[in-house]
Structure formats: structure tokens, C-alpha cells
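As a next step, we paired sequence with C-alpha cells, yielding the entry below.
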Amino acid sequence: MSGGGALETLRVRGRSRALAGDVSVPGDKSIGHRSVLFAAIADGRATVRGLSGGEDNRSTIGVLRALGVAIRDVATGTVEVEGRGLDGLRAAAGDLDCGNSGTSIRLFAGLLASRPFASRLVGDQYLHARPMKRVVEPLAEMGARITGEAGKKPNEVYPPLAVAAATGRLHGIRYASRVASAQVKSAIVLAALAAEGVTTVVEPERSRDHTERMLAHMGAPLTVRGLEITVDPYGWDRRLAARDLTVPGDLSSAAFLLGAAAVVPGSRIVVRGVGVNPTRTGVVDALRAMGASIEVSDERLVGGEPVADLSCTGGALRGIRISGELAVRAIDELPLIAAVAAHAEGETRIADAAELRVKESDRVAATAAMLRALGVEVEEHPDGLTVRGGRGVGAGTVESHGDHRIAMAGAVCALGAEGETLIRDTKNVATSFPGFARALAALGAEIG
């Protein structure tokens, strides 16, 4: 990566040689957030290993420290957390900075909703453009008082979020979520742990279930039946058991390396120690359906999460349709799938993915702009994209729109193109995949 102060540029030369080798990826940031946060409200000391080192996880750690939690850096990617118990957090001296992390701000909104002190959750310019009504509304139904700012959409709520001091216990609710969102679900569950009565969240589709797995492992009064998650604190002693945890490799990060192997002819790579939670493997299913050969080996459980090694061999790619529960399971990787689709014969239709429009950027519009910058024909829809692939991908200049996944998807698409492509504003890649360019370079890509 080169030049430009805060706005760094990534240079990618396409179709130079096949990719080959073994590589690992940073720890799964979704699991990393939860590992540290849940350890902070447990009783006792816990060691969390395998953290990504990315800025998003560091934001969560910074907020917890501001709330009085002692977190000691033991080694690279390893921290020791002194749990303060469910009721042991203390008021921060100032704003709680969540950086670019939507997971951090939404989970902390749920955690802090029941506290007897006020808090103010802030972030960077991109986080302040992300909608929060989906979290604020159910928490308000439980009795929380959270206010935000007006923004580009009427009747929506945006950060900063002011969380008022609770004057009594929150109460349980039954909430039918309009979106399949692990962040929304997790915020409600965290609030429910400190509430009176039973809380049930019903999802339209099953979202990633790291929160349910981890909290159940720590002794929370939580049950899952189909699309319903219930917290029933009756008779519970309000204590979470501290558990040492190892964070598996991030499948969302691994997906970009698998996608790169899929678009560069003759490639074969292996990514070691990746989390393969079935609520997250939609991208693997999609790439396989497109013609990439992906093998899963050495499957094992690590801290209750399934982990395996993934290998990918490129092949002739074809367009597919992605919708319904597959779109939910691959929601964060859809820009990458669109980038691979540019190299596939025929049309790829991504549907039921309106959620993409409220991520770090409007990922529908940003992905379409990325593909057009490389000469790919693409059509936007309210809920997704149609990519007309197999017609050639050229070099160009791609704007990341401040979104790490757009930057990485653009780089993958460019690896299968002719000539050199510039990806602008790539500092954001460090939020989730520090060392992204180094990992690709280690596999033989001309990138830097």
C-alpha cells in the first residue's frame, strides 16, 4: 500500500501468475467482539486468544476499558480479561468510541441499556451514517431510553447514541425482528440478561449464532428453537462463568483469498484454521455453485465453534442466483461474490440483500460502482445486483467508499483482470483484515 496519508492506495496487477500456497487469516472479528465483551461481564479471569488485531476488535476493547474492565495485552492477539460480573461496569469518564464497528455500537447499546449510569456511544464518520433504529426500537420496548441523531433518512436514528441511566429493571418482550441481524439479536439478548421476565427474539431467517453458542457455553439462561431465541432469567443467579476462548480464523477474510484463487486460472491455495459455523458458510456454498472447487478438511471444535482447513482450486465459473437464506448466510461476502461473478459466464443475480445498503457503505451501490470501474456490466436493484460476467474485466481505478469489503472485493476482481488496477482509500482494510495485501502476495499475487 502506498502514499497519501490517511487515504492509501493498493496497486494490483492482474493475471500475472497462478496463486499457490498455505496461509492463515486473522481471528474472526465477530467472535472476537463477543469473546472479549462476554468475558468482561463474566465472573472471573479469562484469556482470549486469536484476536484479529484489527481496529474493530480494538474498539470493543477500548470501550470496555473505559467502562472499568481490566484487559491486559499478553501477546499478539491474546488478552487477559478480568470479568466484573453482569452488574460490575462503571460509568465512563467520556464518550465511548466504537470507531468503525457496527457490531460494537449495537452490542454496547444492548449491554448499557440496563445500567444505572448514562453513556454516549460514538464512532467515525462512516459509523455515524449507519442506521440504529433497528436496535433502538426493541430496546425501547424493553424500557430503555436511547436517543440518536437525525440523518439522511426521515424517521431513522443515527449515532451518536445517548443511553440514559436506567431507573429500574428492563422488562422482557417478544420481538419479531424485520431483518435477520446477529447484531440486533445480540443487543436484545444482552439487555434481556439484566431484565425481568422472559425475552424471545424471532428472526425471519437464521442469522449467525455466535452469541447463542458462546453465552450458553458460559451458563446464560438461553435456549434456541428454530428461529426463536429465548432468555428466561427466572431462577438464574445472574452469573456468567469465565471461559478461556480461542477465536478461529475469520471466514469472511478467508473468503477473499478463496475468491482470488477462483478467479486466477491454475490457482490452488489452502487457508488454515478457519471458522466454519454453518450460519456463516454461505460464501463457500455460493463459490462452489459457481464452479470453484472448495474442500473442507481437518474439521474440529474450538471453544464450541467448528473449525477446519479450506482449500480452493480455480475452475470454469458460471453465474448463479443467490437469494433467501443463502443471501443471509453470505451477507458480508456478497461484494466478493459479485467480484467473482464478473469472471463467470452468464448472469449472477443477488437478491433479498437490501441489508447491504446499510453496511459500512451502501454496498449495493458501491459494489456496482467497483465493477463498472473495471468495465463489468452490472445492474442495481433495490435488494441486490445483476452481474453480467464472462465479458472481460479490465484495469481501472476503484474507490472503496471507506468500506473494507469493497476495497478487498475490488482487489480480488482486479487479480483476474488485464493490467494494473488502483484501489483507493484502502486504510479501512485494517478494520477487519490487517495484512490482506501481504497474504495475497505470499500466495503469489502482484499486489502492494
About this structure: Residues 1-6 have pLDDT under 50 and may be disordered. The chain has 13 helices and 24 strands. Residues 251-263 form the longest helix (13 residues).
